[in-house]
Amino acid sequence: MGQSSRHSHFAVLIVEDDALGRAEAVDLCEEAGFTTHEARDADEALLQLERHPEIRVLFTDIEMPGTMDGLTLAHGMQGRRPPLSIIVTSGRIMVAEKDLPRNGLFVAKPYPPDAILRALHDIAAGLGDEAGR
Amino acid sequence: MSVPIDPPCDGEAERSAALHAYRLLDAPREQDFDDIAHMASRVCETPMAVVNLVDTRRQFFLAEVGLGVRETPLDTSFCGHAILEEDVLVVPDARRDPRFDGNPLVHGTAGLQFYAGAVLKTPDGQSVGTMCVLDTKPRQLTALQIDMLRFLARQAMTQMELRRSLAVRDRLLVEARAAETRRRDLAHEMAHRMKNLLSMVQAVATQTLRQSTSMEEGRLAISQRLTALARAQDILTLSDYEEATICEVVAATIAPHQTADRRIRSCGPDMLLTSQQALGLSLAIHELATNAAKYGALSNGSGTVDVGWTNEHGTFVFDWIERGGPAVVAPQRRGFGSKLIERIVASYFNGEGRIDFAPGGIAFRLVGKPDARPVGRVKAGDP
């Protein structure tokens, strides 16, 4: 499975409390050509977002330990500059489109890797346009 | 004062239980029973009529006309006598009846002199009360009036039965609804756990394939890893998927790799594992044992493995120590197996794992603080 480094200057922040799920998400994002950062809960995620302005995609689980769930985190990030593309996933909760933040996509767990890859490629294409302007 | 009724006789407890089953003692007034009392009063032309429930120490007036009270003690009761009768008791003039000598209701200011009561009998034949009429002057009832009193007694009983049936139905409905809610909650929870497990299976499968050099190697590794997961799942099934003890998990995971001369030895205090820890530890032991059988202490006839753990002061330490195997050569490439046991499984114990490829034998140590992170999960709130 070839890796592309086309957009490796853009990063995905993976927020997932389950280490196995996190490892899987890291591989997927790297396969799509992104650099990755990891967080186990929303508090760690906020720290990472502050530290790494190159993070342009938030890929988050909903149910997590800690003070905030992934959906709340995603909504809180809507005004961020530069803007974040958001992928929300959950095995328990189905999120309707109207409850998603702008630039948000919901994928139910267990998610088909292809769906995530496609979404990441679309996001990468958008970011490429932005970089080319 | 004389007590006209003998103390509770045979079957009194059963009779009282039958009465209490209707749950009508101290019930509020109801039109249906009031109507029956009024009908009795009108038909028998008496100023007083009562639908009376007779308990062991008191009588409760489910409906009454002309008395103005809803309860009296039993020791002065007329109805206590009627209960002992098979069908209908008529006392035309209580002043001349030796059974009511000294009864204050007869000889005091109330001056009750006439009484007629028909027994309220349950479908099982228990006498639980009376439909009675009273007067302050002596009188007789016609055969028609006595028949009507009997009919009204039966009517009162029918109304009581109806209420009991409705109460039973309501209770069954409530129970059925509660059972349905429990069933739905359980199904929901099961679906969630199933999805978690499927996510885990998917991750194990894709990660294994990603790192396999051939289809055959990948196929074998996936099926073995899933078998290890299935064994842990068996243990969890016995405890409603909530938790498992470490001894059960270790024993079940070691079993398929154990040698005839039992060269895998395990020792440690029993403790409860969450479902995630149980599944993770099973995978870790599976990885270590598979590697030991291929390259390590279980690949020759004499090597041994010591599996041990401690859990003291909130710190969990798990050791896998191989001795007596062929000389260890550290692998050039760290596969999914290493990542699984060093990082992934260790994270379930909120700790870290490390494989030491010492020449004398592989040693794996996991150190974690399983309770350091909150166990509860945040529910998704409304955005």
TrEMBL record, chain A:
Stretches assigned to the Response regulatory domain: 11-124
TM segment ranges: none
SUPFAM superfamilies linked: CheY-like
Protein name, per record: Chemotaxis protein CheY
GO terms for biological process, alphabetical: phosphorelay signal transduction system
Keywords assigned by UniProt, alphabetized: Phosphoprotein, Transcription, Transcription regulation
InterPro entries, per the entry: Bact_response_regulator, CheY-like_superfamily, Sig_transdc_resp-reg_receiver
Organism, scientific name: Methylobacterium indicum
SMART domains from the UniProt entry: REC (SM00448)
Record PANTHER family: RESPONSE REGULATORY DOMAIN-CONTAINING PROTEIN, STRESS RESPONSE REGULATOR PROTEIN 1
Source superkingdom: Bacteria
Modification 4-aspartylphosphate occurs at: 61
